[in-house]
Write a structure and sequence with these properties.
Elements (H helix, E strand, L loop, with lengths): L2 E9 L6 H9 L6 E2 L12 E2 L4 H6 L3 H6 L2 H17 L8 E5 L5 H8 L8 H5 L3 H10 L5 E4 L5 H14 L5 E8 L4 H10 L26 E9 H6 L6 E10 L9 H14 L9 E3 L6 H15 L3 E4 L2 H4 L4 H17 L1 E2 L12 E2 L5 E2 L4 E8 L3 E8 L2
Parallel strand pairs: 4-5, 4-6, 9-10, 9-14, 10-12
Antiparallel strand pairs: 1-7, 1-8, 2-3, 6-7, 8-15, 11-13, 14-15
Helix pairs in contact: 4-7, 8-14, 11-12
Length: 389
């Protein structure tokens, strides 16, 4: 069965809905600013991509904001938007597949700063609480599955949703990811690893740039409605893009060491299983976190697959790194590139030594197929091909 994306919802540092996020992206805006969630006065890492939590609270009940970790709150808002965007009445057996890298780390850190733990702490911080709460709120009883593949969690969740529909397990899936990691433990934890940028200005996220010095920690969520093509046609739904393939493989080179040939191979597999050729791909939406090693490995893998200079976009230049949620958002943005024939800009990148073509402004050109890369700690490699109907 052919699988399509018919609804998108998002909460990001660029906006508390997908449309605002997309428009801000095209305008070249940055969602990165000085961190307010954590006291960084004694830390060398000063910037973050923060969601407008005042706007989030206005969209939820007092009980939801009090009892649910922010990663669950963001997922709920994104899921509600996706349903409205798809204009769909979900069948009861709809599956909910939501990825997360850090789950309820916000509530855990808050609890450790108090004298008494909340009775909601354990429930609020489990990784499956996002999909559980979304299923409960939307009154659906299909497969509910939490996926955790580090930074590739969102793309992996979409891959799982793709297979559930393709193989006939269900008619619709809500798939995506949510993360709210802007905490002292995550900021300092990633910082001590040497993977966070020490730049203190909004241009700190610099994918593929010679000056790049690490990623910017961010938060948010993106959820999509996936359904079979025939179902979408029958109800006259707008289709953003077809999910043509989704391939995954595991690198065994080490928990935090990317492998150039494995990244190239998962791209080749995605292209092959989509029944297209490398020359049919018009754009690569890169993982591109702005780390020194990660960007170099991905650029080399792209060169091995395509052989010549390739058009790419790197959305984390504007959103920062929302961990698992970034890979879900970037699948949605890839679908929008297919739908609108627009390549979002990659900002902050002034000079690169890699064989790639970046655009410093939104660029309109025919886009038939987009290849989306996502990679994560633990050797997670995911590649998807999205195409125009």
């Amino acid at each position: 069965m052919r699988v399509v994306i018919t609804g998108i919802g998002a909460v990001t540092p660029l906006g508390v809905n997908f449309r605002d996020t997309w428009e801000s992206l095209l305008q070249g805006k940055s969602g990165i600013s000085l961190c307010t969630r954590v006291d960084t006065s004694q830390l060398p890492w000063k910037v973050a991509g923060e969601v407008n939590n005042k706007a989030v609270r206005e969209m939820l009940s007092e009980k939801q904001t009090r009892r649910l970790d922010p990663f669950v709150q963001y997922a709920l808002i994104a899921a509600m938007e996706a349903i409205n965007d798809a204009d769909i009445e979900l069948p009861e057996d709809t599956a909910v597949v939501i990825g997360t890298s850090r789950a309820g780390v916000s509530f855990i850190e808050q609890a450790l700063q108090t004298d008494r733990f909340s009775a909601y702490l354990m429930a609020a911080t489990t990784a499956n609480m996002a999909c559980s709460q979304v299923a409960e709120y939307l009154n659906v009883k299909g497969i509910s599955l939490s996926v955790s593949q580090a930074c590739a969690s969102g793309a992996m969740a979409v891959s799982v949703g793709f297979r559930l529909i393709r193989d006939g397990y269900c008619k619709a899936v809500l798939a995506g990811a949510s993360d709210a990691p802007i905490t002292r433990v995550c900021l300092e934890g990633y910082g001590r690893m040497g993977v966070l940028s020490k730049t203190h200005t909004p241009d700190a996220s610099r994918p593929f740039d010679r000056r790049r010095d690490g990623f910017v920690l961010s938060e948010g969520a993106c959820i999509m409605v996936l359904e079979g093509l025939e179902s979408a046609k029958k109800r006259g739904a707008r289709v953003y893009a077809e999910l043509c393939s989704a391939e995954t493989m595991t690198s065994i080179s080490g928990p935090t060491k990317p492998d150039v040939e494995d990244e190239a191979e998962v791209m080749r597999r995605a292209i092959s299983s989509a029944s297209v050729k490398s020359e049919d791909i018009d754009l690569v939406n890169c993982h591109a976190t702005s780390t020194v090693l990660g960007d170099r490995v991905e650029a080399e893998a792209i060169k091995r697959v395509f052989g010549t200079e390739m058009a790419v976009t790197a959305n984390k230049s504007q959103t920062g790194h929302m961990l698992g949620a970034s890979s879900a958002l970037e699948v949605a943005l890839s679908a929008m590139s297919v739908y609108t024939n627009i390549i979002p800009p990659t900002i902050n990148t002034k000079e690169t030594e890699f064989s790639i073509s970046l655009f410093d402004h939104a660029t309109e050109r025919p886009i038939r197929y987009v290849l989306k890369n996502s990679f994560g700690f633990g050797g997670a490699n995911v590649a998807l091909v999205l195409g125009k109907l």
